[in-house]
Write a structure and sequence with these properties.
Blueprint (H helix, E strand, L loop, with lengths): L1 H6 L4 H25 L2 H24 L9 H33 L2
Helix pairs in contact: 3-4
Length: 106
């Protein structure tokens, strides 16, 4: 999802650069995560990726003329669904993460 959002409306060479950079970051992080074996790093990486997707999608919805690719009502619908998904994520992921981390340290 992050790759799709970051490479939207980019030149082919920039898209390849972004794809290569994301692959390097994810492979490096995977090696670090296996080495450290601490779940908090996975939580931080997931939340950061979600934040980047949110920021980039809001940029695409509001800063770039969405009328060229989507009708206005479809862009608005996508934006509403984005914020609904973030609300569901906040409601489910954060309380569950707090519950799991509080029981893990007990």
């Amino acid at each position: 999802m992050l790759k799709a959002v970051l490479t939207t409306r980019q030149t082919p060479s920039r898209s390849r650069t972004i794809s290569s950079a994301l692959a390097a970051v994810y492979l490096s992080f995977a090696a670090f995560y296996v080495w450290s074996a601490r779940i908090i790093y996975q939580v931080i990486a997931f939340a950061s990726a979600l934040g980047l997707v949110t920021l980039r999608s809001q940029y695409l919805f509001h800063r770039i003329d969405p009328g060229r690719s989507f009708p206005k009502h479809k862009a608005r619908d996508c934006n509403v669904r984005t914020w609904q998904a973030i609300g569901i994520w906040l409601f489910g992921y954060i309380p569950c993460g707090v519950l799991i981390s509080s029981t893990a340290w007990s």
